[in-house]
Amino acid sequence: MVGKFMFVLFVVAIFQLYSSPVSANPAIITGYDPMEVCIENCAQCKKMLGAWFEGQLCAESCIKYRGKMIPDCENYASISPFLNKL
Length: 86
Description:
Number of helices: 5
Strand content: under 5%
Signal peptide: 1-24
Protein name: Eclosion hormone
Structural class: mainly alpha
Radius of gyration: 23 Å
Family: Belongs to the insect eclosion hormone family.
Function: Neuropeptide that triggers the performance of ecdysis behaviors at the end of a molt. It triggers adult behavior patterns: larval, pupal and adult ecdysis, and plasticization during the molt.
Helix content: 55-70%
GO biological process, one term: ecdysis, chitin-based cuticle
């Protein structure tokens, strides 16, 4: 009797698993705008690095390249064009 119950429970669980849509990334539903992400990252880097980071230049490059080169504040290679020596 327990075996039949477990089998039915298993079949119901598998049916629910395959019948319900799974959405793991909300960016796919809402749309992903690389230029918006690029400009937001420029603002975040400006907050983190202050006067050493040229935020305006970063945002202008986001517009120029249409968000293809997204800066990462923890990756020196991606932000090096926007750093100054003060």
